[in-house]
UniProtKB/TrEMBL annotation:
Keywords: Methanogenesis. It comes from the Archaea. GO terms for biological process: methanogenesis. Residues 45-65 are annotated as: Disordered. Pfam families: MCR_D. This is Methyl-coenzyme M reductase operon protein D.
Amino acid sequence: MTESQKVYPQCRVVPLRMLSPDTTEIFLDKVVKVKGIRRMTINGPSLPKTVPYGPARGKPNPNTNRRTIQVGDSEVELRVQAGMFVFELEDEGVTENIRAVCDEVFTKFPYQLQVGKYMKTSPTLSDYCKYGPDADEKMVGLSDPRKDGPVIIQGLK
């Protein structure tokens, strides 16, 4: 079985509320230290630099949630307000390590940790258009043709 044919377990963490940049930074800084995470995505409402529509279209969008946070050794600009985290794991045992981090960080509000399939595992047409036929398998399913590429966090293994 080749690396691209192997099926990796996935889980997602859904906090009860949208996270502030500070809480997102604390959570991500702890979760990148968990061994066995192959890749992850952060989903939530977009935080555009400029107003995308309406009478103020094109003007700066002064949103305090759009800022740069420190995660591991990387600086990451938040493009979304964190509402859900999806992880692809090396093995199912890593789920309990992620749960331990969640229990440590999310003390003032509940969260759900769900196991299932949440990321695409085979290349899409958008992946082919953006990265070509020899795309890195860790980028599969993470491309959005309208946006910049995904942010790579150093130290995530």
